[in-house]
Amino acid sequence: xxxxxxxxxxxxxxxxxxxxxxxxxxxxxxxxxxxxxxxxxxxxxxxxxxxxxxxxxxxxxxxxxxxxxxxxxxxxxxxxxxxxxxxxxxxxxxxxxxxxxxxxxxxxxxxxxxxxxxxxxxxxxxxxxxxxxxxxxxxxxxxxxxxxxxxxxxxxxxxxxxxxxxxxxxxxxxxxxxxxxxxxxxxxxxxxxxxxxxxxxxxxxxxxxxxxxxxxxxxxxxxxxxxxxxxxxxxxxxxxxxxxxxx
Length: 247
What we know:
Elements lengths: L5 H13 L8 H12 L2 H20 L11 H8 L5 H8 L35 H41 L8 H39 L5 H25 L2
Helix pairs in contact: 1-7, 1-8, 2-8, 3-8, 6-7, 7-8
C-alpha cells in the first residue's frame, strides 16, 4: 500500500513541475521543489507544526475568540478517509457549509474593488461595540479559512484513494510506472483546478473580511498575515510531499 500511495506523490510532483506554462514565474512552486529535494520530510513536518503555532499566536493578537485549526493527526486521518468533513466541523467548531461545493468556488475576484483604505486605526477611535464586531469578524474569517483547508485536504484524499483504487484494479502485469503515469495524466487538470479553486475561495474570504474590518474602522494588518500564512503553508506542503517522493 505504501508503494501504491506514491501515486499521489507523483501527481504532486508533476503539478509542481508542469502546473501551467508559467512555472518560471511561480516562485512558490520553484521554492517548494528546491526545499523538497534538499530538506528531510521530518524537518518539513516540524516546520509545518511551527508555522501552525506561529499563526495561532499571531491571530491571538487580533481576536480573543478561540481559533481552531485541524491538528496534523486529524488532517492525516481526513486525507486517508478515516474521518469525514462533518466529523472535523463538529470537533473544531468550523463552518460545515464552507467545506461543501457551491458558488463560492466559482467567483471571480478580478473585478473586486479594494477598500479605499487599509490603514491601521488608532485603538482610541474604535468603539466597544466595534471591538466586539471586529473580534467576531476576524474569528469568523479565520474559521472559514480553516474550513477551506479541511475541504481541500479531503478532496486530495478522495483523489488519492480513487487513484489507488484504479491502480490496484489493474492486472498485476500492468501495475508499473507507465500505468501510474497514465493515471496521473488523467487527473492532472483536476489537481490544478483544485488549487485554483482553493486560491479563489481563500481570496474571497479575505476580501470580505478586509471590507468588513474597514467598515468597522478595524486594523487590517491581519489580512496580510493570513495571506502570507496561506502561501507559506502551500509551499511547505508541496515540499513535504516531494521530500517523501524522493525516498
